[in-house]
Amino acid sequence: MIRWLLLLLGGALLGGIVHIATVIVLPRTATQDAYSRLAAVAPVNKVTPLPEPAAGTALMPLMDPAMALAVCRYDLSQGPLKLTVPVSPAYTSVSFYTRTDVAYYAINDRAAGRRVIELELMTLAQHEQIPEEENVTAADRLIVDSPTTTGIIAIHALAPEPGLMPKAAAAVGAATCTQTQADAGR
Questions:
Q1: Are 102 and 34 in contact (CB under 8 A)?
Q2: 72 belongs to a structural domain
Q3: Is 127 part of a structural domain of the chain?
Q4: Does residue 184 belong to any structural domain of this protein?
Q5: Which residues have a Cβ under 8 Å from the Cβ of 168 and sit 6 or more positions away?
């Protein structure tokens, strides 16, 4: 009896180790991650609105049909980015992901408290090169530090009714994601 219990315990322990190792390794070896799927339709450092999801043809899994979505695949190797997102009538959010789909920052229209969400995205090394400006506060200039040089910015706008989808789509379509010069305006 004890032999069977030890065998079952050993099998459960080995199964748990294999499961955890698989969960950790598989996302890093996947060839069809979000960044790769978007490479075909979204150029680097440019906001690209995505089409509304339809059954079986959605570009990304689990897309919400009540949300207008745009993405910006970014590359910070040439310098920081300036992101500008007009706020939609209902709700707008901006989420930042690394190349390996790890979320590291998010902001919505209520947290921004403005009609336009404006921020600068840069690496920590680029942030350290910015000279300190005494008259500029954190409320005036939102800077997001990216842990990697490449990644994805996802822009969502809610359409609480189907008739409001054109306004939500217009809001995400008017967003800009542009490369800034390292020393310009600093």
A1: no
A2: yes
A3: yes
A4: no
A5: 67, 68, 88, 89, 90, 157, 158, 159
Predicted confidence pLDDT, tens digits, the chain (186 residues) = 889 999 999 999 999 999 998 888 876 776 677 777 888 888 999 999 998 877 777 777 778 889 999 999 999 999 999 999 999 888 999 999 998 888 999 999 888 777 889 999 999 998 888 877 755 555 567 889 999 999 999 999 999 998 999 999 999 999 999 988 654 444
Q: Does one domain contain both 26 and 40?
A: no
Beta carbons of 72 and 177 less than 8 angstroms apart: yes
The parent domain of residue 139 ranges over: 34-179
Tell me how many domains the chain contains: 2
**Which phi and psi angles does 126 have, rounded to 5°?**
-65, -35
Q: Which two tokens stand for residue 184?
A: 């310009």
Exposed (0-12), middle (13-18) or buried (19+): which is 74, by Cβ within 10 Å? buried
Q: What is the DSSP track for 50-61?
A: PPPP-TTT-SST
The answer to whether residues 23 and 88 belong to one domain is: no
